[in-house]
Amino acid sequence: MNSVLYCMEKLNKNSKLRQMDDYIQHGSTSCLKHTIAVAYYSIKLADRLGIKYKKSELIRGALLHDYFLYDWHDGNGRGVHGFTHPSAALKNADRDFALTETERNIIKRHMFPLTPIPPKCREAWIVCMVDKYCSLYETFNRKTAYEKVHTKTPDKFTELYKEIINF
Length: 167
Ligand SMILES: [Fe+2]
Ligand SMILES: [Fe+2]
Prior knowledge:
binds fe (ii) ion, 7 helices, mainly alpha, Hypothetical protein af1432
């Protein structure tokens, strides 16, 4: 089974992961779709670089890096989203999962350099970079980003994944 899919299904149990499909990240891309893409391209980049890395922690951290679970466009006084959402995501993720230090660092530091403390492990650096790439892609392809990825269909994760690979 595909490793991102496997981690998603594990995380999906007893959590609010699917709720992320109800919130928009950029353009027409939901938070869930965004995090699937970040997880997928993070392992692609890590493999391309040929470095040693903790694969399941990289995937889990990437899938949870934006687990803040609210609509950040609603203007409901949570501070400036870019600065505050890593902590909100980490708080939720800590509540719902037993996280490793690597996973915590991925979530907490993914907005560097907007938040000034840099990542401290290679997995967190990778997510930090891939997140920026995906965010730009989603912002500049507002209507069509990952258009073949239908995250609203929970039993179609395998198909979804074949599609994201071909995007
Ligand atoms: Fe984020
Ligand atoms: Fe993100």
